[in-house]
Amino acid sequence: MGSTVNILLVDDDEVDVQGLKRAFKKSKIGNPITVARDGIEALEILRGENGCERLPKPHLILLDLNMPRMNGIEFLETVRADEDLRSAVVFMITTSKADEDRMRAYGHNVAGYIVKRDPANTFMEAVALLEHYWKVVEFPA
């Protein structure tokens, strides 16, 4: 794939945000990472609204489930209903092991549902998976 994949990390947990950034650094992956603290801020970044610079495509969204203001499922519902955003590649990264949450996420066409079991290892495994994914997969324009 020719162009750099921009990563949008949507997570309100600073420890998880730093853990994921560390995992990218350890894996020597220099893709730009933009952080949004909830679904509302993520939409502003994706749409270039409220003074946010629009996130360039191709992009990949790493989405937490439990967040204030707009949670992961609400964010997914909004993205999938938006003509410009509906083709976004989204991976859910969450602590929720609930079947209901997983089924709802896949019902909104997430590319994967990753459970944070042991954050340090989960982030390294997730980053390795993502790196392989974007080397192989063609992204929507």
UniProtKB/TrEMBL annotation:
This is Response regulator rcp1. One of its GO terms (biological process) is phosphorelay signal transduction system. Residues 6-131 form the Response regulatory domain. SMART domains: REC. PANTHER family: RESPONSE REGULATOR RCP1, RESPONSE REGULATOR RCP1-RELATED. The lineage of its organism: Bacteria, Pseudomonadati, Pseudomonadota, Alphaproteobacteria, Hyphomicrobiales. InterPro entries: CheY-like_superfamily, Sig_transdc_resp-reg_receiver, TCS_response_regulator. It holds the Pfam family Response_reg. Keywords: Phosphoprotein. The modification 4-aspartylphosphate is found at D64.
